[in-house]
Design brief:
Elements lengths: L20 H8 L50 E4 L5 E6 L5 E8 L7 H10 L9 H10 L3 E6 L4 E8 L3 H13 L5 H20 L1 H13 L13 H5 L3 H11 L5 E7 L3 H11 L29 E6 L5 E9 L8 H11 L6 H9 L6 E5 L7 E9 L3 H17 L4 H14 L7 H13 L10 H6 L3 H11 L5 E6 L1 H11 L4 E5 L13
Parallel strand pairs: 2-6, 7-11, 7-12
Antiparallel strand pairs: 1-2, 3-5, 3-6, 4-5, 8-10, 8-11, 9-10
């Protein structure tokens, strides 16, 4: 994620004209009554002291009432059942509006095969064996619905949304795309061109460069979370046969689950799904490839301070990432680290923003984030600053890393963050789609079924000492550092702030300039 900066916002240019002609014409056009020399003006009266004005009474503002205890919130009940073909179905009811959303999640994503997973998902909407792309688009648009597919890291999602009365049509089209994709060759060539254009755009963006290289250096070589930029020839190698093989392997009913949310019940869903997705074929579990994350059992942390510097001569600023590997999403310490991260830099009330942005003026924005993963995710501080202020920025970041590790938070900032996390949670489960998103999180990261039912209680149970403990455990004193910008100028700044750090340089293809391999 790139960090918002002043240079990202559109400049506002104000223009206007001030017209004084009316006043001038009113004076200049008045005809002179006579041209005699006027009498001398009388001298002004002696200055008199201005009368004293009564002072307005000072306003008194009452103290705001103390925050009340959070009101009880119950995570909605989720109905579930399994179809005969092994497809698991979860139903989140909300009958306020006659709309239903369907999220079909296939347990295969870019971690299984980066380009093939993406192209397979994108090609679902390019037509089936019985319907052209134009017919599918026309049918779903005619009823005001939507149909979309895309591949993420862990899974591929096919989503449909329609009025309740048109849900059968939406599910019929979804089922056709899932079971009978045509994979037209000309559409694949079009998608390849788009992918290579996107690759060029990614390499031109300093934020993407910084985030991509950060993951590359944080994870072991070959890890699905830390892949380098693809090469154009890798994209060109993908064939229709590759897509068909990926589809035949992973797009199976017992390797997926469906979340229905909105104006629907379990009783409504069962016969409807039997008619639409009931013929989707399962796979023998032993024929599914193992999770590619399973082979990575050891994750090393940096022992020495290294700055990974990407030389981007056109940069006006230095793009910065500082952080390390942390923990998996289902780790018991997740909520404690969530509280610690909120204190440090989750939003504009965090320490990083209030000090480095508001007090020191070194950046327009600075934040910290803990990434979700089935394997350990990353803790990362992200920001940008003027090139000449890079040393000041690095000094400030390390001051805050030391502080969150060494000192317990104050009672005020700790209680503020606790109230914020517990107070905003009800807003995150107001709609059926929001609840469906939480259900998806539980399933994707193998969280306890009651995770969100107990979430606020678990946040309230965190202590200031817990914050310091998890900070020392997951926010490391020797982090990975990635900087993108003008290397010659930034190198001097690095040596000023971090004189003992080793500097490793890269080009904008994220290749080591010295030709050495990572390690």
């Amino acid at each position: 994620m790139t960090i918002s900066a002043l240079s990202d916002a559109p400049h506002l240019v104000r223009s206007g004209r001030w017209i004084l002609a009316a006043a001038l014409l009113a004076t200049g056009c008045k005809k002179q009554a006579d041209t005699a020399t006027p009498e001398p003006a009388a001298p002004p009266p002696a200055e008199q002291p201005a009368p004293e004005q009564a002072k307005a009474p000072e306003r008194e503002y009452p103290d705001p009432p103390p925050p009340s205890d959070p009101k009880p919130v119950n995570f909605p009940e989720v109905q579930e059942f399994r179809m005969d073909n092994g497809l698991k179905v979860y139903v989140v009811e909300n009958h306020e509006v006659p709309v239903v959303s369907a999220r079909l999640v296939i347990k295969a994503g870019t971690m299984d095969d980066e380009h093939v997973a993406e192209f397979t998902a994108d090609m679902l909407g390019e037509g089936t064996k019985s319907r052209s792309k134009a017919k599918i688009d026309e049918a779903i648009e005619f009823v005001g619905g939507s149909l979309w597919a895309g591949a993420g890291v862990h899974a591929t999602t096919v989503s449909a949304r329609a009025l309740k009365k048109d849900l059968k049509l939406a599910l019929t089209l979804m089922a056709d795309e899932i079971m009978n994709p045509a994979f037209p060759a000309d559409s694949l060539e079009k998608l390849k061109k788009q992918a290579k254009t996107s690759l060029d755009s990614a390499k031109a963006d300093p934020g993407t460069l910084a985030s991509t290289l950060f993951d590359m250096v944080a994870y072991p070589e070959g890890h699905p979370y830390g892949r380098p930029f693809p090469k154009p020839e890798d994209i060109d190698k993908v064939t229709v046969d590759d897509l068909k093989k990926f589809h035949a392997t992973f797009y199976r009913s017992n390797n997926a689950y469906l979340i229905l949310s909105g104006d629907i019940t379990k009783e409504d869903a069962q016969p409807l799904l039997k008619r639409t997705l009931g013929k989707w074929k399962p796979v023998d579990p032993k024929d599914l490839p193992p999770n590619p994350l399973n082979k990575f059992t050891k994750y090393d942390l940096p022992q020495d301070l290294v700055v990974h510097l990407v030389d981007r001569p056109g940069s006006a600023q230095a793009e910065i990432r500082v952080g390390n590997l942390a923990l998996a999403r289902n780790h018991p310490d997740w909520i404690k680290l969530e509280v610690a991260n909120a204190i440090l830099g989750e939003g504009s009330n965090g320490r990083l923003f209030m000090d480095i942005r508001e007090e020191r003026g070194l950046t327009y924005g600075i934040y910290s984030h803990v990434a979700s993963g089935q394997a350990p995710g990353t803790f990362v501080i992200s920001t940008r600053t003027k090139t000449k202020k890079t040393a000041d920025m690095m000094t400030a970041i390390f001051e805050h890393i030391d502080k969150i590790r060494d000192e317990k938070p104050t009672e005020e900032e700790f209680s503020t963050v606790q109230r914020k996390l517990t107070g905003k949670f009800p807003l995150e489960i107001e709609t059926a789609d929001q609840v469906a998103g939480k259900v998806r999180t539980i399933l994707e990261y193998n969280l306890p079924k009651d995770y969100y039912r107990t979430y606020r209680d678990n946040v309230a149970a965190v202590t200031p000492e817990d914050v310091r403990t998890v900070a020392r455990k997951y926010i490391h004193a020797v982090p990975h550092i990635v900087i993108v910008g003008k290397a010659k100028k930034i190198e001097k700044q690095i040596k000023k702030a971090l004189p003992t750090a080793k500097i490793v340089k890269y080009n904008t293809d994220l290749e080591r300039i010295d030709g050495a391999k990572k390690g």
